[in-house]
């Protein structure tokens, strides 16, 4: 499992999105979030990451949890608040 809180996938023009799209889909749960009060570029690229993961076959609510925090900023205080939601999802028992 992995958690990406406010991921900086915008770096290098979003090249990481291409790497993820080409990589094999791995088993496990993924949690991705973004704060809507972060800069627009960060929000846009985080949404692109979500879309790439869905296209790879991750299923929302089953092995992918996506969260947009309406009041979230790019800061440890926001990540700490959201991490409390990520951990139970990542550690729950697998469903068939």
Describe this protein with a few key phrases.
96 residues; 17% strand; alpha/beta
Question: Please, could you describe this protein's structure?
Answer:
There is one protein chain. β2 (30-35), α2 and β3 (64-69) form a beta-alpha-beta unit. This protein has a three-stranded parallel beta sheet with strand order 1-2-3, sandwiched between helices. It has helices at residues 11-22, 40-55, 76-91; strands at 2-5, 30-35, 64-69. It has three helices and three strands, in the order βαβαβα. The chain has one domain. The protein is of the alpha/beta class. The mean pLDDT is 95. α1 (11-22) runs parallel beside α2 (40-55).
Number of strands: 3
Contiguous low-pLDDT stretches (5 residues minimum) are none
The percent of residues in helical segments reads 40-55%
> What is the number of independent domains?
1
Give the percentage of residues in beta strands: 15-25%
**Tally of individual helices:** 3
């Amino acid at each position: 499992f992995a958690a990406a809180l406010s991921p900086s996938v915008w770096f290098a023009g979003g090249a990481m999105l291409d790497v993820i799209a080409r990589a094999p889909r791995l088993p496990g749960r993924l949690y991705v979030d973004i704060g809507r009060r972060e800069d627009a570029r960060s929000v846009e690229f985080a949404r692109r990451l979500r879309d790439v993961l869905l296209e790879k076959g991750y299923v929302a609510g089953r092995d992918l949890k996506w969260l947009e925090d309406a009041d979230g900023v790019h800061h440890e205080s926001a990540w700490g608040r959201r991490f409390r939601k990520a951990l139970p999802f990542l550690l729950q028992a697998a469903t068939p």
